[in-house]
Amino acid sequence: LSSGTLKSLSDNELEECCTKFAETFSLDGSSDVEVYDLISELKIMRFTLPNGVMSAMEIFGHVREVDCYPNISIAYRILFTVPVTVASAERSFSKLKLLKNYLRSTM
């Protein structure tokens, strides 16, 4: 979430996004993020962010400096690691395919 996206969301849209996030990244009904705390932290943070457009990494840096938004910090860490794990899995499969082709051609 960039600062522009965060500030443009209505309260209802923000609640929907946080609920979907918690449902997606929960295991057996327990989640690392408290949904209602995350919603209230995001509502407060919208007004305390510095003016100007900020990327997701800049917002995460701001959250780490302020150190009063624990659920937002956890949510950003989860969101930053998800694409990396997907990309590494896809790359490992393509390397496996190349290795198999090489081994078949040397038989």
Key terms:
single chain, 107 residues, mainly alpha, two-stranded antiparallel sheet, 5 helices, 4% strand, elongated
Structure description:
The chain has five helices and two strands. It has 107 residues and is mainly α. 10% of the residues are buried. A two-stranded antiparallel sheet has the order 1-2. A hairpin with a 2-residue loop joins strand 1 (26-27) and strand 2 (30-31). Helix 2 packs across helix 3 (35-48), helix 3 (35-48) crosses helix 5 (70-105) and helix 4 packs across helix 5. Helices cover 76% and strands 4% of the residues. It has one domain. The chain has helices spanning 3-8, 11-24, 35-48, 56-66, 70-105; strands spanning 26-27, 30-31. The radius of gyration is 19 Å and the shape is elongated. The model has no long low-confidence stretch (mean pLDDT 83).
